[in-house]
Amino acid sequence: MTILNNTSDGLHPELIVLFRTVAYLGKVNADDLLQICFPDIISDTSTPTRLRGALLRWTQLGLFTEKDNCISLDDRFAKSKKEDLDSFTAKLPTFCRSLILEEKNAFPFWGESAAPAGDFVRGITWLLAQDLYMLPTTWSGGAENHEKVQITGDKKIVQNDTRWTNLRFWARYLGFASGDSASFQIDPTVAIRDELPLIFGTQHELSANDFLTALSTQLPIFDKGVYRSEIESNLNTTTWRKPSDGHLSISLSFALRRLDLNGEIKLKGRADAGSSLRLTGRMYRTWIGFESVVWNGVHA
C-alpha cells in the first residue's frame, strides 16, 4: 500500500473524519471507530475499504497508535483540553507533513522496498523541481512526457494517471499546491508559512543561506534538502533545467515572493551585487537577490 493508492489508503477526507473522531473521543475501539465514521445506512461500499486503509496507513506512519485494539492519537499530536476541535483539525496538514517527511516514512522512495510515504515524497519533490509556469495540468500527453524525458534509468516517479490525480489531491491539502483539477499550480506558500515558527525558532532574522538550510532541514523536499538532492541526481540535465548557481528553484522563489509581498516575511538586501541568494522567475530570469530573511511572527 502507498499514500497515492486511494483505493487502499483513502484520501484526506477519510483521514479527517478518523482524526476528528479519535480527537473527540480520546480513545476508541478500532471497530467502533469505523462504525462511527461509516454507519451501516450508507451504501457506498468503497468507503469502508478506504477508511480501513487510511486507519492502517496513518497508524503505520505514526499519527494514530493502537493498543489492545483501541485507537488513540500519538502523544506528539495530543489535543489540549481547552482546544476546540475545528482549530485542532486545522493543524492536521502540519502533522501529516511532519510524518510523511520523516526519514523512516519517506526514504527510500524507489522500487519495491519504498517507504510507506515514499511515493508521495518522490512525486512532490519532483513537482517542486519543475518550472511551475510550464508544467501541464494533465497527465496523459502532458506531465507524463515530462517524467519520461527527465528521469534516468528505469526509475519511475508518478507512473500513471491515478497516482497523478492523487498526488495533486494530497499536494493541495498539504500546502504544496493550489487550484482545482483544471487550474492546478505548484505553490508551496502555505507549507512554508506553516513552518516559519520552527524555521526561525527564537530569532527574527536569518541570513539567506541559514534560512535555506533551516527550510531544507525542516522540509527536505526543497532546494538543498536530502530528498530534493536524491531526485535531482536522477534527472537528465539535458531535459530538466537546474537553477543557476546562487539561484533558488522557481517553485521556492514563487512562494517566498508571495510571502514577501504579503508582508509575512521580508527579503532584505535586494541589490543584485553581493546578494547571497536570488529568486528565479518566469523563463528562469533572475527576480531579486536577498541577503537575509526577516520574520515578525509568533516564535516557537
Highlighted features:
300 residues, mainly alpha, Arc Repressor Mutant, subunit A, three-stranded antiparallel sheet, 14 helices, 46% helix
Describe the structure.
- This protein has 300 residues and is mostly helical.
- The protein has two domains: 6-90, Arc Repressor Mutant, subunit A (Orthogonal Bundle); 117-300, no CATH class.
- Helices cover 46% and strands 11% of the residues.
- It has 14 helices and ten strands.
- The strands form four sheets. It has a three-stranded antiparallel β-sheet with strand order 1-3-2. A three-stranded antiparallel β-sheet has the order 6-10-7. Strands 4-5 form a two-stranded antiparallel sheet.
- β2 and β3 (70-73) form a beta hairpin.
- α2 crosses α3 (30-37), α8 (118-128) packs across α13 and α11 (189-200) crosses α14.
- The longest helix is centred in the first third of the chain and has 16 residues, at 46-61.
- The relative contact order is 0.10.
Q: Give the termini separation.
A: 35 Å
Strand order of the largest sheet: 1-3-2
Run of helices and strands: HHEHHEEHHHHHHEEHEHHHEEEE
Total strand segments:
10
Spatial extent as radius of gyration:
20 Å
Overall form:
globular
- Overall average residue pLDDT: 90
Beta-strand percentage range: 5-15%
| Tally of separate helices | 14
Number of structural domains: 2
What is the secondary structure topology, with strand pairs?
Blueprint: H1 6-9, H2 12-25, E1 28-29, H3 30-37, H4 46-61, E2 64-67, E3 70-73, H5 85-89, H6 92-100, H7 103-106, H8 118-128, H9 139-150, H10 161-173, E4 177-178, E5 185-186, H11 189-200, E6 205-207, H12 208-218, H13 226-232, H14 250-261, E7 266-268, E8 277-280, E9 286-290, E10 292-294
Antiparallel strand pairs: 1-3, 2-3, 4-5, 6-10, 7-10, 8-9
Helix pairs in contact: 2-3, 8-13, 11-12, 11-14
